[in-house]
Amino acid sequence: MNHLSNSPRIRSKVSRLLFLLCKMASRAVLFNSFLSLGFSLFVLLGSADAQLQVGYYAKTCPNAETIIKEEITRAMQAAPSLGGPLLRIFFHDCFVRGCDASILLNLTSKSSPAEKDAPPNQFLRGFGFIDRIKEKLEKACPSTVSCADVIALIARDVVHFDKGPYWAVPTGRRDGRVSIMNEALAMLPAFGANITTLKSQFASNGLNAKDLVVLSGGHTIGNAHCFTFNNRIYNFTGRGDTFDTDPTLDSDYVANLRSKCAPTDNDTLVEMDPGGFKSFDTSYFKLVAKRRGLFQSDAALLDDPETKAHVFRLANASPDVFFRDFAVSMVNMGNVGVLTGSQGEVRKHLAGLATLGCVQAQLKLGFYDQSCPNAEKIVLDYVKKHIPNAPSLAAPLLRMHFHDCFVRGCDASVLLNVTRTDNSSQTEKTATPNLTLRGFGFIDGVKALLEKECPGVVSCADVISLAARDAVVATGGPSWNVPTGRRDGVVSNATEALNDVPAPTSDFANLTTSFANKGLNLTDLVLLSGAHTIGIGHCSSFSSRLYNFTGRGDQDPALDNFYAVKLKKKCPSLNDNVTVVEMDPGSFRTFDLSYYKLLLKRRGLFQSDAALTTNAAAKAYITGLVNGPPEEFFKQFVLAMEKMGRVQVKTGSEGEIRKNCAL
Questions:
Q1: Looking at residue 423, what is its pLDDT?
Q2: Residues 382-401, mean pLDDT to the nearest whole number
Q3: Cβ count within 10 A of residue 476
Q4: What does each C-alpha distance from 172 to 52, 146, 216, 516 come to in angstroms?
Q5: Which of 589, 594, 595, 553 lies closest to 574 in space, CA to CA?
Q6: What are the Cα distances from residue 657, in Å, to 4, 259, 450, 578?
Q7: How far does CA 579 lie from the centroid of its chain?
Q8: Hey, which family's this protein in (predicted)?
Q9: Which of 47, 66, 325, 441 is the most buried (most CB within 10 A)?
Q10: What is the mean pLDDT of the chain?
């Protein structure tokens, strides 16, 4: 069965069957036609167990779809603008962990914000309405209809209410138990996404270029906040010029948008499909074809021959053609990553607490509560004592934690002078990326105090993690709970450090690959790069951007000219290996948002910094951080640090507890 479920031929037959059904019946009576014809259509997914079925609740809750439809009709008559948000909830749910209603969960652990908390979801509406529908379903059929199916059916019914198509929704989804904010940040297509990113994100969910274009047609209903597209009409290339607009945007449309949105407007709403934002029709495609798509991601559909052809096809086709395509693509998307059978659960409450998907590597908060209760206080007191006298040491301690975790995991292998498995090999300390690391003596000092208090108990790996946290706090940054229980590694290899530590010259592709290899995603990359808000860099780590970028004695065109002149004064030659420069000029000892503000002005010091703005999704996320309060950055940075601190840790009987961190 499994080989059949993955067969393109089977999927093709399902799509053709849907096409014929749409053609046979009017959209108002399609579902009844489906049942009267006696079809028992199963949509086959990625495994034999994953089966959705039209009419899944016909016996267990026969009025389920009627209850939902009646509630939709009542709500949409009173608040017609609710259609767009309810459709958007379905999209945002399916793109993160599949269509499992994880978007509705309020919390998955005390320290892990849920998908709802991610910036792309903070302006979603309709959760209270979905709660009311679920209450009615629970009253009619307790613990029967999943929240995931409620979302899918609502999406269909709001589209139909707005004069769009009606289609048979295969049901039988189960609800997920895990919801993680960072996953939503990484997986949801951004407003500023380019066509390469969009196609990749859709493809990762089994959706093709046609699905991308057709489902983008959902933008024919609904509104959007000015901040989601303001950079297109005021500061597109980041030069700070208010007349710097996206050249792909129609000039008359720019003028219209500017009359509604001031440069820093975060509150005003604009129709995504002017004049038709409450009617589901083909006007969206006509606007995109005229270069009047609101978002950069809308305009991107014209940057690829395949997607552009679909845009113009639908712009010139009858509404029925679009309706038919949309129904098929919605069924396709509704199949993404579904849980069925014994997987997941059927939640009685939409936002109920779910459990974490797994226990990661047996780290826990307060690991030393019994064995060394003063351990964390000893580290904190040492940081408080020494960082005020040597504030420039905070960044190296944080950097040491990064460099350690990226090579063999967070195991303190970066501290070793020799490795027991091969005394002749050079250790990570001797690798080029680590030659400028400082703070080894500081760590030794902390470890000596811990050994005096609790001999052979606290690992060097945990000392690094705790010192990094406390150093960030000492510079005005956030504090966070550090799960402990790491053990120390016994192997340290310079070649591995050279290969695994991201270089300051890395491009975006190399950066994302390096982070992905450690289980870290795009948002982790952006957030952890924010650590460059404190510290200094040697001229040698960026001088090629000033003097010999392509090997012809030229300058990196991505670098702001004013900033380049300033850097050349401090680093007068390509071969300066001694001089150091602030990574975040004027604020290099304060943990804040200024690093990101500099990036948007093309003033990132390293090539790896500048690379973050070459990706639409990363740049959009950076813009969101800059426009938000520092507390939001702090909250998300904490999560990324906790995640990095778990990379390939050794626990239990693995590794050892070193008494001397260097040996």
A1: 56
A2: 93
A3: 16
A4: 5, 8, 26, 33
A5: 553
A6: 52, 64, 12, 36
A7: 37
A8: Belongs to the peroxidase family. Ascorbate peroxidase subfamily.
A9: 325
A10: 86
Whole-number Å distance between alpha carbons of 75 and 366: 49
At position 125, the amino acid (one-letter code) is: R
pLDDT of residue 201: 93
Residue 323's closest CA among 173, 170, 209, 162? 162
- Residue range 542-580, pLDDT digits in tens: 999 999 888 888 999 999 999 999 999 999 988 888 899
State residue 73's pLDDT score.
Answer: 93
Spatial CA neighbour of 416 closest among 460, 367, 360, 371: 460
- What the block records as the tokens of 237 is 């290339």
Structure tokens at 660: 């001397």
d(CA 409, CA 403): 9
Length of the chain counted residue by residue: 663
More confident residue, 15 or 614: 614
The three-point CA angle 34-40-44 to 5° equals: 115
Number of helical (H) and strand (E) elements in the chain, helices listed first: 29, 8
User: Annotated binding residues for Ca(2+), as ranges?
Assistant: 404, 407, 409, 411, 413, 428, 533, 584, 592
**Residue 223 and residue 657: Cα distance in Å, rounded?**
57
Residues with active-site annotation: 403
Tokens (6 digits) for 223: 């509104």
Binding site for substrate, residues?
502
CB 639 within 8 A of CB 181: yes
DSSP 155-207: HHHHHHHTT-------B--BB-S---HHHHHHHSPPTT--HHHHHHHHHTTT-
Residue 639: which H helix or E strand, with range?
helix 630-644
Do residues 565 and 547 lie in contact, with contact meaning Cβ atoms separated by under 8 Å? Answer: no
Q: What is the pLDDT of residue 421?
A: 54
650: β partners: 487
Question: Which residues contribute to the annotated binding site?
Answer: 404, 407, 409, 411, 413, 428, 502, 532-533, 584, 592
Residue 331 sits at φ, ψ, to 5 deg, of: -65, -40
Question: 3-state class of 505 per DSSP?
Answer: coil
8-state DSSP, 120: G
Give the long-range contacts of residues 58-64, CB within 8 A, separation 24 or more: 60/141, 60/144, 61/137, 61/140, 61/141, 61/144, 61/145, 63/140, 63/141, 64/137, 64/140, 64/141, 64/144, 64/145, 64/149, 64/153
> Confidence class of residue 515 from pLDDT cuts 50, 70 and 90?
confident
Tokens 């769009």 belong to 164
Instruction: Compute the Cα dihedral for 525, 531, 532, 535 and give only its sign.
Output: negative
Residue 422 has pLDDT above 80, yes or no: no
Per the annotation, binding residues for heme b are: 532
| For helices 209-216 and 195-203, angle between their N-to-C axes, nearest 10 degrees | 110
Instruction: Identify the CA nearest to 627 among candidates 657, 597, 655.
Output: 597
Domains, the chain, ranges and CATH?
Answer: 2-183+327-334 (1.10.520.10), 375-497 (1.10.520.10), 502-644 (1.10.420.10)
pLDDT digits (tens, 9 = 90+) for 288-318: 999 999 999 999 999 999 999 999 999 999 9
In the 8-state DSSP scheme, what is residue 370?
T
- Which amino acid belongs to residue 477? G
Report how far residue 427's alpha carbon sits from residue 491's, in angstroms, rounded to the nearest whole number.
Answer: 8
Nearest to 267 by CA among 236, 225, 232: 225
pLDDT at 350: 62
Task: Count other C-beta atoms under 10 Å from residue 592's C-beta.
Answer: 18
Do the bridges between strand 107-109 and strand 51-53 make them parallel or antiparallel, or are there none, so unpaired? Answer: unpaired
Q: Measured between alpha carbons, how far is 6 from 297 in angstroms, rounded to an integer?
A: 30
DSSP string, 430-463: GSGGGTT---HHHHHHHHHHHHHHSTTTS-HHHH
Distance (Å, whole) CA 165 – CA 30: 9
Per the structure block, which two tokens stand in for 296? 């950069």
